[in-house]
């Protein structure tokens, strides 16, 4: 294996931070203008795409061209699909209750508080979680079987996210399902197919960096942090807390895996709302 170009990668960390910050600052300006901070959720996927593209340009002449293009494409496909999905889902809705509750307790100027606690924090997370995307593009060796295994795991994750989101959207669009728990398709195998998909995407991108021990060491924090966010942070834990009092959700929890997919247990079907 070739040596990892530490000096070039260190400079890229600054470029990636600037890209993530730029996306969040532009989003903040738009949010203040329209009076709605929920659009920051759209910027999450856009931020990763920006970091991947900036890194692809900056790593020219350092990393293997095939690996650079592969990692950039995988990140952009995931990030832009997520951004478009959230934008469509949010259309016609007001402010997200999460941000309303947070800003109601803001000391001083609400927008300044949102900038610190939402936009800058999310920009920092984009930079941290994107470390495999950055490091992989500086690996000079051509992709090995491990990289292609990572791409396959990424594909599984994207499939869970895209199919799960589409199934839930169709379910909600049917008036006959009003007041019911979504427990069909992938949602009968896991209560969080989109979060499980995210988990697979980021461990897959991490594998793309693992042809270099140095790149793997510097970026392993990313999938670990993402896994914790999905299972114990702002993902699964908060959503299930929000859903806990819905009629039928306890029964849904009893028969459906909380994260990793498995066949549903045979119990009676509950009713509620998701």
From TrEMBL:
Q: Which PROSITE patterns match?
A: S5A_REDUCTASE (PS50244)
Q: Which UniProt keywords apply?
A: Membrane, Transmembrane, Transmembrane helix
Q: Record's Gene3D superfamilies?
A: 1.20.120.1630
The record ties this protein, via Pfam families, to: DUF1295 (PF06966)
Q: Where is this region: Disordered?
A: 255-274
**TM annotation in the entry:** 6-32, 39-60, 66-84, 113-133, 145-163
Keyword Ribonucleoprotein found = no
Keyword Membrane among record annotations? yes
Q: Which PANTHER family match?
A: 3-OXO-5-ALPHA-STEROID 4-DEHYDROGENASE, STEROID 5-ALPHA REDUCTASE C-TERMINAL DOMAIN-CONTAINING PROTEIN
**What's the protein called, per UniProt?**
DUF1295 domain-containing protein
Organism equals: Streptomyces ossamyceticus
